[in-house]
């Protein structure tokens, strides 16, 4: 269930970026969404013609949008805000290493 929700949210995020003409941007930064480790932002910046700071901000924004999409997907499966919070906690516990 948790992997399905995450996969659906990632696909929706991908589609949003494709619709904005940013498929390469998304595909380049997608691996950074799952890790908190400091990535090589300088290298990514060169690839995308962006500064390392802009890469960091872009990754942060993609992560925020991904969280919104996951939350919306979970909200579609529950009946109340309290249930949503419980399901989100369960989802995070399942997906945490």
Short description:
By secondary structure, the protein is mostly helical.
Unreliable stretches: none
Largest sheet: none
Number of strands: 0
- Helix/sheet category: mainly alpha
What is the 3D shape?
A: elongated
What is the arithmetic mean of pLDDT? 91
Q: Give the terminus-to-terminus CA distance.
A: 16 Å
In what range is the share of β-strand residues? under 5%
Share in helix: over 70%
- SS element count, helices: 5
Radius of gyration: 15 Å
Strand and helix order: HHHHH
Topology:
Layout: H1 2-19, H2 23-29, H3 41-48, H4 52-75, H5 81-95
Helix pairs in contact: 1-2, 1-4, 3-4
Describe this structure in words.
The protein has 97 residues and is mainly α. The protein contains five helices and no strands. The chain has helices spanning 2-19, 23-29, 41-48, 52-75, 81-95. The radius of gyration is 15 Å and the shape is elongated. The two termini are 16 Å apart.
List keywords for this structure.
single chain, 97 residues, mainly alpha, 5 helices, 74% helix, elongated
């Amino acid at each position: 269930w948790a992997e399905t929700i995450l996969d659906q949210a990632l696909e929706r995020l991908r589609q949003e970026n494709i619709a904005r003409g940013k498929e390469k941007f998304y595909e380049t930064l997608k691996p950074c969404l799952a890790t908190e480790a400091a990535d090589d932002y300088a290298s990514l910046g060169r690839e995308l013609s962006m500064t390392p700071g802009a890469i960091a901000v872009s990754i942060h924004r993609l992560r925020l949008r991904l969280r919104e999409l996951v939350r919306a997907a979970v909200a579609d499966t529950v009946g109340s805000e309290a249930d949503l919070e419980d399901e989100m906690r369960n989802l995070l516990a399942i997906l945490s290493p």
